[in-house]
Design a protein that fits this description.
The complex is a heterodimer of chains A (161) and B (419). Chain A has 161 residues and is an alpha/beta fold. Chain A is 34% helix and 16% strand. Chain A contains eight helices and seven strands; from the N terminus they run E-H-H-H-E-H-E-H-E-H-E-E-E-H-H. In chain A, the strands form two sheets. A four-stranded parallel beta sheet of chain A has the order 1-2-3-4. Chain B has 14 helices and 18 strands. In chain B, the strands form five sheets. In chain B, strands 4-3-2-5-6 form a five-stranded parallel beta sheet, with helices on one face. A five-stranded parallel beta sheet of chain B has the order 16-15-14-17-18. A four-stranded parallel beta sheet of chain B has the order 10-9-8-11, with helices on one face. In chain B, helix 7 links the parallel strand 9 and strand 10. The termini of chain B are far apart. The chains are: A alpha/beta (161), B alpha/beta (419). At the A-B interface, helix 5, helix 7 and helix 8 of A face helix 2, helix 3 and helix 5 of B.
């Protein structure tokens, strides 16, 4: 599980450029993920890899295609000090794990081997030999995640036809 | 503890007497909006979840505005999917080519947003309707699907930044300069997870079009919404457009704010945002003379009639510089008609600008003005991210209609006060 590291304010236009939004299939989105800031990402990313970035990750457009692209690449989670609010909602709603942890986002370096325990929010950087504690999700949001996304949680509640 | 305007609207929509910042609530929605890029993803999720009915066919709006009139086969497929869904569910407010406009100019124009309402849209610039004293915010496609199915959505009640406006704008300075100045001051995450609540005696002097532009770019400061108090200008705007009853909310005197930012409108100068973040602001006088290849005047930020009047006044009787392509995109069909009636379209065409049917096209690098390698555009749009409008090495300078028009004529970044 290797780490890809990016800076502050990674916007959804670079996560998945608008020129590729005319095909929202997961495979198409994955093949262009991050291409405007990291041309080699889509060809080198492997199942279980992690993205670590600076503050305000996912700012800009509301396109859900952005967390979908990252998820479709097999990325296990994104760790950042903060997320733009629409990206945060979208990630939760589609079941793409994100963790807010400023200390981890700063310390973890590209290429480090990192494991994450989603139950406890503990992030372990095996390369550095350090552990970090991510902020826990509020109970309501944890419920959405546990249901497997927003629509599943609504179905379970029987509030839609 | 008192509540802000946003908190009061959310409390009412959640059926609560009081809400606190950080509280998670479920609110009733007055309108659920989507476009041709986000709606198809929402439809797929809606159908995959097994939903068969929308909560209210009159409270959903679908606007095919981003890649339309369709730029390629894949875009046409997306529009077809949205069109078929709209017909199947008898969506009242479905806007196709010929009727559509850039959604955030169209929705207020059609009377689909009103003071006190709760509106979500699967488009980040849905925050535009804060100009009317509504709570409106951008969400994703799964949120749109949930909203279409239930008419409900979860929100975290935001804290707020109070933005106090003093004085009055000077000539050639407009709402775009106000919001660029604010984003430059607080940064692209300066209002993250928060409301921007505009207030102060300076509000009264701002036109509705200025307010729409300001609320529109609240998201560019990370804001959840950007909201204005309701006054005579608001009521004048909705009069004849909105016939349903609406409720006017105002912030409590003891409402709590995390901070206050004061902007003296008298002192603002034409402002631009340099590549590649909206917070990289400069006074236009600091960067005047920088060579450019293209000028775009339009979008949900600045494609309204006031924007076109400002641009046309500067371009009248002059010619677009030979090194520049200038594209003007009135945001809705009504704005096209109004601009024709006032002779603005003729002014643009005689100046050597191309005039387009309404579309979001160039703003997101779709069509109608995509840039090649190393090119630079002065644009009245809202984002100047890497590759946003074309090639990854192209550059966008965000500006007001006045700066854009002056730059088109000068052939370089130009100060409208000197044109």
């Amino acid at each position: 599980m290797k780490v890809y590291k990016y800076g502050a304010n990674v916007d959804t236009d670079v996560i998945i450029p608008a020129r590729h939004l005319n095909d929202p299939s997961p495979a198409a989105l994955a093949s262009h993920c991050m291409e405007d800031i990291d041309a080699s990402f889509a060809s080198t990313v492997e199942e279980g890899d992690i993205i670590v970035a600076g503050p305000n990750f996912g700012c800009g457009s509301s396109r859900e295609h952005a967390p979908l692209a990252i998820k479709s690449c097999g990325v296990k989670c994104v760790i950042a000090p903060s997320f733009a609010r629409i990206f945060y909602r979208n990630a939760i709603n589609i079941g793409m794990p994100i963790l807010e942890c400023p200390e981890a986002a700063e310390a973890i370096q590209a290429g480090d081997t990192v494991t994450v325990d989603f139950k406890t929010g503990v992030i372990t950087d095996e390369t550095l030999g350090r552990t970090f504690q991510a902020a826990p999700f509020p109970e309501f949001i944890e419920g959405i995640i546990q249901s497997g996304g927003l629509l599943n949680s609504l179905k379970a509640r029987g509030v839609a036809k | 503890m008192g509540m802000t305007m946003t908190q009061k609207i959310l409390a009412k929509a959640a059926g609560l007497d009081h809400v606190e910042p950080g509280q998670l609530i479920e609110a009733r929605l007055d309108l659920v909006l989507g476009n041709d890029i986000t709606t198809p993803v929402a439809i797929t999720e809606f159908e995959k979840a097994g939903f068969t009915q929308v909560f209210d066919k009159d409270r959903i709006a679908i606007v095919l505005d981003h890649y339309t009139p369709c730029k390629d086969i894949k875009s046409a497929q997306l529009c077809k999917q949205a069109r078929e869904f709209a017909h199947k569910h008898s969506i009242t407010n479905f806007f196709d080519v010929g009727h559509m406009g850039v959604e955030h100019a169209l929705i207020p124009e059609k009377g689909l947003a009103a003071p006190g309402e709760v509106i979500v849209g699967a488009d980040s610039h849905t925050c535009t309707y804060g100009a009317l004293g509504a709570f409106s915010t951008g969400v994703g496609s799964t949120d749109m699907a949930a909203g279409m199915a239930t008419g409900l959505l979860w929100f975290k009640v935001p804290s707020a930044i109070k933005v106090t406006l003093k004085g009055k704008l000077q000539p050639h300075v407009s709402g775009k300069d106000v919001i660029l100045h604010l984003i430059g001051s607080i940064g692209v995450d300066g209002a993250l997870y928060q409301s921007l609540e505009f207030t102060g005696e300076g509000v009264a002097s701002l036109s509705m079009d200025d307010r729409f532009t300001i609320s529109n770019m609240a998201i560019e400061a990370g804001g959840k919404n950007g909201i204005f108090p309701v006054d005579e200008k608001t009521m004048e705007y909705i009069n004849g457009r909105v016939s349903r009853p609406c409720e006017v909310f105002s912030a409590d005197l003891d409402a709590q704010y995390t901070r206050e930012v004061v902007i003296d409108l008298d002192k603002l100068e034409p402002t631009v945002a340099m590549p590649h973040l909206p917070e990289n602001t400069k006074l236009v006088s600091e960067v005047a003379g920088l060579p450019i290849d293209q000028v775009i005047i339009g979008s949900c930020t600045n494609g309204r009639i006031q924007d076109l009047r400002i641009a046309a006044a500067i371009m009248k009787g002059k010619k677009v510089a030979p090194n520049v392509r200038c594209v003007v995109l009135p945001a809705t069909q009504d704005i096209v008609l109004q601009a024709m009636a006032e002779g603005l379209i003729q002014t643009f065409i005689e100046a050597g600008a191309a005039v387009s049917t309404p579309t979001c096209g160039p703003c997101l690098g779709g069509h109608m003005g995509v840039m090649a390698e190393g090119e630079r555009t002065v644009s009245t749009t809202n984002r100047n991210f890497v590759g946003r409008m074309g090639h990854v090495t192209s550059e966008i300078i965000l500006a007001s209609p006045a700066v854009a028009a002056a730059s088109a004529i000068a052939g370089c970044v130009a100060d409208p006060r000197k044109s």
